[in-house]
Predict the 3D structure of the following.
Amino acid sequence: MKFICLGFQDESSGTKMSQSERKFFMEQCFAYDAELRRGGHFLGGEALQPARNAATVRCQSEKVMVTDGPYAETKEQLGGILFLEARDLDQAIQRMAQHPGVRTGGFEIRPANEEINAWIAARKPSPTSPNHREAEFLLKQRSNR
């Protein structure tokens, strides 16, 4: 099964580390990711920039609203995602419990929605020709600015 692991951290924890401590911590994370990769469990991942560089888009009363930063005002912010292959949720939890990232925050581990992901994969949209409804939506959003 494929799992999406959302890595949360207190963004101030990075500022509490010295440059050498931060480098050592990241090397530990990379080493564990390499161990997961060797075992066929690491499918990929992405680190995210700080939440202060984010924007949240949502619709209220048929109008698109854009706000700076993340939707929720919390101490811990989403710092990255990791794609994990595991037998089941218990094995995914066991794998991520050993990840060094748990020391600066935590991981929310969710099974991928294979049914919807299969629909997405089946669509195989061309980047140069979005479907009609997507094009209409984009044009409408631009005109609302």
Q: What stands out?
A: The helical segments are 11-16, 19-38, 89-97, 114-123, 132-143.
